[in-house]
Amino acid sequence: MSHHANAGKIAPKEILENIANLISDYYIQKPDRDNQAHAVAFGTSGHRGSSSQKSFNEAHILAMTQAVAEYHKAQGHDKLFIGMDTHALSTPAHRSAIEVLVANGITTYYAADFDYTPTPVISHAILTHPNSDGIVITPSHNPPSDGGFKYNATDGGPADVAITDLIQARANAILENDLVEVKRIAYEEALRSEYLVAYDFITPYVEDLQHIIDMEAIAQSGIKIGADAMGGSGLNYYRAIKERYGLNMEIFHDSVDFTFSFMHCDKDGKIRMDCSSPYAMAGLIEMKNHYDIAFGNDTDFDRHGIVTPSHGLMNPNHYLAVAIDYLLKTRDFKSMGVGKTLVSSSMIDRVVASHGAKLFETPVGFKWFVKPLMEGEIFFGGEESAGASFLRKNAQVWSTDKDGIILNLLAAEILATTGKDPALHYQELTQKFGTPLYARMDAPANSEQKKLLKNLQASDITQTTLAQEPITSILTKADNGYAIGGLKVNSANGWFAIRPSGTEDVYKIYAESFISPEHLAAIQADAQTIATKIFEK
Question: Which residues of the chain have pLDDT under 50?
Answer without folding.
Answer: none
